Amino acid sequence: MSDVPSMNVDELQAALADGATSVDVTRAYLDRIAAADGELGAYLHVDPEAALARAAEMDSAGTRGTGLTGIPIALKDVVVTEGVPTTSGSKILEGWKPPYDATVAARLKAAGTVLLGKTNMDEFAMGSSTENSAYGVTRNPWDPQRIPGGSSGGSSAAVAGGLAPWAIGTDTGGSIRQPAALTGLVGHKPTYGSVSRYGLIAFSSSLDQAGPMARTVLDAALLHEAIGGYDPLDSTSIDAPLPVLAEAARRGAEGSLAGLRVGVVRELGGEGHADGYEDGVLTSFGAAVARLEAMGAEVREISCPAFDLALAAYYLIAPSEASSNLARFDGVRYGLRVGDDGARDLDEVMALTREQGFGPEVKRRIILGTYALSSGYYEAYYGQAQKVRTLISRDFSAAWDGRNGDGVDVLVSPTTPTVAFPLGARVDDPIAMYAADLCTLPASLAGVPAISVPCGLSEGLPVGFQIMAPALADDRCYRVAAALEAALTDERGDRGFLDQLAARAATTEGAA
Hints:
Layout: H1 9-17, H2 22-40, E1 43-46, H3 48-60, E2 72-76, H4 103-110, E3 114-119, H5 153-160, E4 166-171, H6 177-183, E5 186-189, E6 209-214, H7 217-227, H8 245-253, E7 261-265, H9 279-294, E8 298-302, H10 310-325, H11 346-357, H12 360-373, H13 379-401, E9 410-414, H14 430-434, H15 441-446, E10 450-458, E11 461-468, H16 474-490, H17 498-506, H18 508-511
Helix pairs in contact: 2-3, 7-8, 8-16, 10-12, 10-13
């Protein structure tokens, strides 16, 4: 089955229903990983024997070709998996094998998926390029000299390079949407609290969300439905029904957006706010907005002034929560332990373990967060950042509600200000690196759903289009994204630049 790496999930489902086996499909991906991952660095852990055994189990279950049964998947290494190494990209957790599954992993296992492996990531999800991993960089399948985005860069490279049909990422400030945009994928950040955080190694507890990364909008919706819904093990989980997402994607693919009200966010690349945005990104974005209008959407510009403050607010709130969450990594209970020779007390062992176990970016954010929470500075920094967060949420509410009934149904923007930049280009400039998430941060801070869908190419590299909707209106994101995807397909009678992904995935040479 040499064509497997170029198939979408719905095509794999049809193949399995028509007689293909999960073992054959899984082996095809494992062969692809063996051939290409030495160059891409998408995976941190792959166990071929375990994957093939799981596939054989699914083949014998008698439900092959239904639902997700027998479909391989990759998980970002921040998702805890029972008995499978889980490092969060950090030396401090090297070799740790958790005794339990995260809810996301458990639900995928119950759905019958086959775990291909755990994907590389920026350490503790702190980064925008997957250059902060303690285990080496990940490369973009479109150009191996460029970043695949971050922190879910291993997941994006695996899917874009044909090393997995889809993957789970996590999004704290844009870590699903940004890498999806830079590798030509669909990536969705669910409404905060609608996908369980139980068993996700925490970075920022009020922001972290797991979500799908896939080649098509329908595939992303199918994966989202499998992992979403209330979980009593997560105290922030929303006890409300999950919207019907796959059906929303199918409706959107029919192509009509008549009556849909679309707001183009002025502060995210609009007039007077375009500094740092590449011309090619804005051109592709503008063309995509025109396509929505041609499908019947009512488009107008919306101002959200507090969005200009999102970057500063995020880089106080997220590090502050990280400084608390990462205190649990002390070299005592699990993971790395340095200096335990009997001559040092516990405080010295902890200090040595953290010095050697945490990388530079993690240390930077712990120090920043601890300072922001310290006595005398808490209100000036963390407190003010939380007030800005409230203003951002109010800007979203004002956009949905409008004045005199002139609100909008969705807000749109570029997903990223630029296409994928070269490896090493921003490692010595944290501010420039942080700016890669400029467009994705507002939705994260407000907890609303947002999706990135490919909308074109700039200088031969993918551009992402971001769609944001009110809380629990994830189905609206999928509907609009699927409509745009369909428009790009129909325009040329094929999938146009989207088919370049499948062509690259079908051959080792295309991705390595």
